[in-house]
């Protein structure tokens, strides 16, 4: 990385080893790693002047300082033939096939520059897709109502530049450039700035396991980015053992955290990275960057349930698919696909996630041909797990993108939601969930030609193994990801639209549960640990449990959940104060040791050690 002039107060610009850097108002340094190219030049778009040759400085690097400033459009010309965008482009106003643009990141003045984030245990996540919410400016306008729910962090699905005008973001090919369909980079910064002003953290979902299938030209001039011996489900695997490749992605992480002031990153499909040493190095570099000056959080999506990656100095938490999958089987009765691994004993699996984190901790998995999945996880705190009932994957990867509310009994969904919002794990909501939305969120792309056909037909073939889709006519009804109507169906209405009484009732439900969480659970999460989970007896096929946690203040939080259609039997009368119940008056049956159907009741009891709690909160430092 190179030095740059002193920055004005309130500005942030990360010095990368790659790409275009404004070193003076009218001078820009360009750096490109193109080890398979003999020559490289910078072509300035729209100017009638020859390409500016770049100097080969060794190890595949090319460099040039060019008299141009912010707003300049440019490409690289390799070996006099191949024209490519900058792989570290900060902005692509015309998309992946257009020129890159020189950006002066220090031009944006942050209004909330003193923001230092929030401790991880305070996090309540709200996942959203910028495009489906109308772009950066539209999301910024919605922030006050999101904060009013009791949410403390929004998590953005990937914003890197992708091919076409619409995409989930996981097919990105230019990982430093916010996609132009959402707005300009400074609009994304304004969104984050406004969130910080409301006390909201902002996390970003990043994809470091593959590049998208269209618009990625790196194999033409930097094939060393990729492994020759391995493919992921989405394309060639990335070679993190190579110094330049490792630096590219670590700098990308630091760039988002520094230049855009994101409060954390969610690493998509870490299991497909297949390099735990690199993941640990990424965490080390991020921790070194943040030091004690900011709360910066790292979250994994990791099918392998690698508990060894979680903890101090590593990753704060992992998305807990085990919680979702076991709860989903209980709520819907679905047993196909990855739900097969939970169908044998969904209540037992759910209980284990509440008591120990992962349901699979090295046991044979039906989804992995009986191979063991996961590592022991009971030693980790509850906050090492992000729990959810819906997210972009679990809704959007369904054939028709149905929301949970359309698949399960509504009272049971409320009961499960109460468990989600009050348990000591970190809860995540998916956009629209707080409204009780029944609007689908479907898989959408914007490809053309053969790739569009392959994506559409590949998705339909994927569902052919499901009993519900053995009929070809039913498969043909699966929405075409490239049809713009698929995207339109997935967009959320803005907050200015009229809300129904039903919507208001759902929002009140979420607000009330999160108010209880903020007052009684969140302050006592440092030092919290699980005490155990009991499966409750009852009539018919019992689907009930009671989970207990010792909170950091010495009190005990108990949550009793019944997702079944019959009463469940409690082993003893609750001791302490009931802090939440659904449905209303569910407590009336407790005198008979009965937990009503599709109900959730939470209570808190025990001596509260205020001195111990205050000591922990004063001495906790970063988290």
Question: How would you characterize the overall build of this protein?
Answer:
It is found in: Cytoplasm. It catalyses: hydrolysis of (1->4)-alpha-D-glucosidic linkage in 4-alpha-D-[(1->4)-alpha-D-glucanosyl]n trehalose to yield trehalose and (1->4)-alpha-D-glucan. Its EC number is 3.2.1.141. By secondary structure, the chain is of the alpha/beta class. It folds into three domains: 89 residues, Sandwich (Immunoglobulin-like); 311 residues, TIM Barrel (Alpha-Beta Barrel); 94 residues, Sandwich (Immunoglobulin-like). It contains 14 helices and 31 strands. The strands form eight sheets. The chain has an eight-stranded parallel β-barrel with strand order 10-11-14-17-18-19-22-23, surrounded by four helices. Strands 3, 4, 7, 8 and 9 form a five-stranded antiparallel β-sheet that branches. Strands 24-26-27-31-29 form a five-stranded antiparallel β-sheet, with helices on one face. A hairpin with a 3-residue loop joins strand 7 and strand 8. Helix 4 runs parallel beside helix 5. It is globular and about 85 Å long. The C terminus is likely disordered.
Mean pLDDT: 94
Helix content: 25-40%
CA radius of gyration is 25 Å
* Largest β-sheet summary: 8 strands, parallel, barrel
Structural class: alpha/beta
Tell me, what is the CATH class of the largest domain? Alpha Beta
State the fourth-level CATH superfamily of the largest domain: Glycosidases
Shape: globular
Oligomer, anyone? single chain
What count of structural domains? 3
Task: Calculate the terminal CA-CA distance, rounded to whole Å.
Answer: 29 Å
Number of strands: 31
The CATH architecture designation of the largest domain is Alpha-Beta Barrel
Tell me the number of helical segments per DSSP (H or I, 4 or more residues long): 14
Low-pLDDT runs: 494-498, 608-623
The CATH topology label of the largest domain is: TIM Barrel
How much of the sequence is in beta strands? 15-25%
């Amino acid at each position: 990385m190179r030095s740059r002039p002193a920055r004005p107060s309130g500005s942030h610009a990360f010095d990368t080893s790659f790409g275009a850097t404004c070193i003076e108002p009218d001078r820009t340094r360009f750096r490109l790693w193109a080890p398979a190219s003999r020559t490289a030049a910078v072509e300035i778009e729209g100017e009638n002047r020859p390409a500016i040759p770049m100097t080969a400085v060794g190890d595949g690097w090319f460099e040039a300082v060019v008299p141009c400033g912010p707003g300049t459009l440019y490409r690289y010309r390799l070996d006099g033939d191949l024209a490519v965008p900058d792989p570290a482009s900060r902005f692509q106003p015309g998309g992946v096939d257009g020129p890159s643009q020189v950006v002066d990141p220090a031009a944006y003045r942050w209004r909330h520059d003193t923001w230092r984030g929030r401790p991880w245990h305070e996090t309540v996540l709200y996942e959203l897709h910028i495009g489906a919410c109308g772009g950066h400016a539209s999301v910024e306008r919605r922030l006050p109502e999101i904060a009013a729910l009791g949410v403390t962090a929004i998590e953005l699905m990937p914003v890197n530049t992708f091919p076409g005008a619409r995409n989930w973001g996981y097919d990105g090919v230019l990982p430093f450039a916010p996609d132009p369909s959402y707005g300009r980079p400074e609009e994304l910064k304004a969104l984050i700035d406004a969130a910080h002003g409301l006390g909201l953290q902002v996390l970003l979902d990043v994809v470091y396991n593959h590049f998208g299938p269209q618009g990625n030209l790196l194999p033409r001039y930097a094939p060393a980015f990729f492994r020759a011996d391995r493919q992921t489900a989405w394309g060639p695997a990335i070679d993190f053992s190579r110094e330049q490749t490792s630096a590219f992605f670590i700098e990308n992480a630091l760039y988002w955290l520094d230049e855009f002031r994101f409060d954390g990153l969610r690493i998509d499909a870490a299991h497909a990275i297949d390099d735990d040493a690199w993941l640990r190095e990424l965490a080390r570099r991020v921790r070194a960057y943040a030091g004690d000056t900011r709360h910066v959080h790292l979250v994994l999506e990791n099918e392998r349930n690698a508990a060894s990656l979680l903890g101090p100095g590593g990753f704060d938490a992992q998305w807990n698919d085990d919680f979702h999958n076991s709860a989903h089987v209980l709520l819907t009765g679905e047993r196909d696909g990855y739900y097969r691994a939970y169908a044998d004993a969904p209540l037992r699996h759910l209980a284990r996630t509440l008591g120990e984190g992962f349901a699979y901790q090295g046991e044979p998995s039906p989804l992995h041909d009986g191979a063991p999945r996961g590592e022991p996880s009971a030693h980790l705190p509850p906050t090492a797990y992000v729990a959810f009932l819906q997210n972009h994957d679990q809704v959007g990867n369904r054939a028709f993108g149905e929301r949970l509310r359309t698949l399960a009994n509504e009272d049971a969904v409320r009961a499960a939601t109460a468990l989600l919002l009050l348990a000591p794990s970190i809860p995540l909501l998916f956009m629209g969930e707080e409204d009780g939305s029944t609007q689908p969120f479907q898989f959408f792309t914007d490809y053309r030609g053969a790739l569009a056909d392959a994506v559409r037909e590949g998705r339909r073939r994927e569902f052919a193994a499901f009993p519900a889709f053995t009929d070809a006519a039913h498969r043909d009804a699966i929405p075409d990801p490239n049809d713009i109507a698929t995207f339109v169906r997935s967009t959320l209405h803005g907050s200015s639209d009229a809300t129904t009484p039903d919507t208001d009732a759902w929002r009140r439900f979420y607000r009330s549960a999160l108010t209880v969480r903020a007052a009684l659970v969140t302050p006592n999460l440092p030092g919290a640990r699980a005490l155990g989970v009991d499966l409750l007896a009852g009539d018919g096929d019992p689907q009930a449990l009671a989970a207990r946690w010792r909170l950091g203040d010495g009190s005990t939080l108990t949550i009793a959940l019944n997702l079944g259609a019959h009463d469940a039997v409690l082993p003893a009368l609750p001791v302490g104060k009931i802090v939440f119940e659904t449905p209303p008056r569910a407590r009336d049956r407790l005198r008979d040791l009965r937990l009503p159907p599709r109900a959730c009741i939470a209570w808190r009891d025990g001596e509260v050690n205020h001195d111990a709690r205050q000591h922990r909160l004063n001495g906790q430092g970063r988290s």
